[in-house]
Amino acid sequence: MNKLYFLLLLCLFSNNHPLLHAQGENNNWHFGKKQSINFNVNPPLQQESNMMSYEAAVAVSNAQGQLQFYTIGSRIWNRNGIEMPNSNGLLGNGPTINGQPAGSSAYGAQVIKHPGNPNRYFVFSGDAQEDNSYNVYYSVVDMTLDGGNGDVVPGMKNIPIMTNGSEYMAVTRGADCKSYWLIVRTNAIWVRDYYAFKIDVNGVNTTPVITTPPAFMIGAFLPLIFGNDGTSMYSMGTGGIVFAQFNNVTGVVSGFQSFTAYSFGPMALSADNTKLYTAEGTAGVKQYDLTLMPNLTAVQNSAQIISPAPNPSHMTIFNDMRRGPDGKIYLLRQEISSAYYNVTIDCIPQPNLSGTAAGYNIGAFDYISSWSPPMGLNTFWRFGDDFIVNPEVDTIAHPAKDTVVCFASSLNLQSPEADAAYYQWSNGANGSTASVSADGLYWVYSTNNCQTYIDSFKVHFIRFSLDLPDDTALCENKTLQLDITDPAIEAYLWNDGDVNGVKTISQAGRYSVRASSGPCSLSDTITVSITHPKVDILQDDLSMCNNNISPITAEANVPGSYYWNTGDTGRVLIPDHSGIYVVNHLNACGLYKDSVRVTINDCICKIMIPNVFTPNGDGRNDVFLPVTAPGCNFMFYDMRVYNRYGQQVYYTNNAANGWDGTFRDQPAEAGAYMYSIKYTNRYTDETRIENGDVILMR
Description:
The chain is mostly beta strands. It is built from 1 helix and 59 strands. The strands form 17 sheets. Strands 9, 10, 11, 12 and 13 form a 5-stranded antiparallel sheet that branches. Strands 14, 15, 16, 17 and 18 form a 5-stranded antiparallel sheet that branches.
């Protein structure tokens, strides 16, 4: 197709251009066969596009009117007119002709911005009736992909949500201004249910809210449009013009009413929603006064034809009408005869006005009159659908809340809007709460229930400590100075009326103080007693055995350090010799002493037993006699010697006696003998038994 630019007619030069006051999400239309209109300029400019679609199409721009992408659901082009890399193989909105989907699903392409991710969009695509299938799918486009040109997210394409859908879908806003509804009519022949799918921060809820219309609402309802409130619903079908209410909280459709009108024509609402326009073929374009609602009869009788009389020699078909972002209504009109075919885009420049004051201009854009068959009537049928966005919300700024925080290191500020769709704090937090730890003025920007709130918090932290010493004993004739001064403390009050931060104590008693700054205060108490320091060794003079040494322990009535005359430190000392032991206790009150006399007795009794003896009369080792250590004192002594036959050859109970090597007054034969010695220590009352062998040698 050659690149074509077209002149605009008078209606495009209206002085009151609403575009200057509107958001720009629909400022670029892409539709039909390579057609687009740029509403970012005044007058709007018709341009070429890479769009190829018989019917459904959606173009998405940002709030500044900058094109993001355009789509027929089964194909997606980025802002540069290049199909997104991962958009191949998208389903819906056929039929497929020459390997490409033709886009013949009337309202089968819709786009919804992800309420929880501003970089993502849900692209919905419904099957065309020609394919005899009725599926509805969605794919997810992320504008951060492909270098910021956007692409379909891998693994998030062709996600099915319906198998009994139709070509007729529409989008409206949720009541909370942070969600949307996709409404799809089913493909049943007679009663076509409404399936409403909610889209919120969690994504697409694939469980629909289903409404079955009343019995009189039968047949095919074609256009489905919503008023500015998102709840007034209008459509046209075999029953005429249909009015209903959509509950954008619950998703239920109710309150169906209708009156007879031309079937299957396009519809549009004026910007102020007071006028409903329908295009009824040879009857022309009609305007209905919606201010007369709920009197349906009065609305029906208010119909006025605002378009010029059609050429009687041509068949006139109005394929579509759509309100532009400039507030005007644009109409797609075909004139056909046996020898003539023409497509134009007409314009209603003042649709808010009543009757013919609304105006009607033919040929706002002279579409492509040079086209000829085989394009014929199938050139294109629709402008496409609006990209619906939640409206700008009212802004309510609340006065700053003064908040004083006592003794905390941080504070969690809570937005008054606990269930808002969006939060932005001055410190960068983006939840319903924000943690702060320093004095300052903080604000949170939140949106909820179609309103924006700015709440601010003036936070002042008061932090100081108050720590009196532990309860203490004061030495006699000594004083204790308590200093609790702190620049953050504004006032002091002691229980005796003292208001100073420094207090000197010389008397026993209980002292309490309250320190305060603003509304914040702390209290503490100390009990002071007067003490007479001393140190005592707990044991009296004592005597002990050298094999059973007992420790001696000192104890003082005030904290301090212990030093013994032995050089040892600590409360407990193990004596190692007889003598006088002195402990010195050094404390805050001075140096104090005590002493004890310790006598250590040699109470250890050990015996050494030879293993051989030679009773030959030479005076050396002639007797088998155990040797006892000095200090041994036996309370009981028993020694027995046995030969190899078990005969007792010697016995004594006197530790001073030993065996001379005789048995029955005869020298015993040389060899090994067994001995058993049993004795009891008189000091320790300990009894021991020693058994062993001794060799008698001659």
